[in-house]
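re: ur msg from earlier - yeah i can do the beta-D-glucopyranuronic acid complex, just paste it... oh wait u already did. ok heres what im feeding in:
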Amino acid sequence: MITRRALAVTGGAAIAGAGVAFAQQHSAGAAITAVDVHPSDYPTVEAVRWMGEEIARETNGRINFRLYPSGQLGSETDTVNLARFQVLDIARVYLGAVNNMFPATQPLALPYVFRDEAHMRNVCDGAIGREILQTFERRGLVGLAFYDSGMRSIYNARRPIHTPDDMRGLKVRVPRADIFMEMLDAMGANSTPIPFGEVFTGLQTHLIDAAENNWATFQSTRQYEVARYWSQTNHCCAPEALLMSKARYDSLTRADQDLFRAKATESVAVMRGLWDQKQATARQTVLDAGVNFNEADQDAFRRAVEPMKRRWLANADIANTIRRIDAHV
Ligand code: BDP
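and the outut:
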């Protein structure tokens, strides 16, 4: 059993040390290690579990998945690196965690890029999605699929947010990515990048006042118990990424590689079915628990982030992808 302590990954040296410890156990079997920060019953974890069961069935048990949910093996940034160096095999992470390292993912994380969730799904399923997934191979990963992450909105422990003016002085937790920091700063807040696993305590101890995420995460982390105001901004619809260690992928036979790709692609539909249910039930649970809900002035938020968006669009590659996304059904 790999413990969180054994993999206490806080920096390069620690990652290397953890890598040795993990690789020793890892080499013993043909198990595929898959990690996620979410708990066992979250749609992303369920979808990877489904993928593993399918692959075990198709290979008559020759390949099995071992899941490490709930961030047991570290933060998303850590696990992306652990996968790159084949210490673990599959990391399901939010796009924010890879945004700085893989610039091709940046257009998907900019604010107000997708018209709605259907638009995001279509873009991810099409040529744009495929091209972006391919770029992970430049740095030791194979991009297997994009999963849904819904629309993100802002929640906080102090007051309803209607316009960016209401954001003044709020310390808002963001994923550690330049786009997210600039986005929340442009909305008038003080962006504070801290790891996902520390958000609940951060809100509880008032280290931060607010965070931004989707309904499913707000509910499953119980952050709604400490942040009682949800303000619907729908500012970001970046997807989740399902990534595999390229070294591990390359070590598979051609037939197994095809099987992994096929089952990962099929798992997207499984994930989306679970996701639609989870979003609806999570929202209801949170509202039933008395969280104050309000629609924010989304036009005001769009205007606030326009200058920061324009700066990113000065990059010709990003501008080109955004044009293609706009024109996409
Ligand atoms: C959630 C993603 C999770 C991220 C988290 C975050 O599913 O992978 O770690 O957001 O904000 O929606 O860091």
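cool cool. The radius of gyration is 19 Å. ping me if u need the other ligands too
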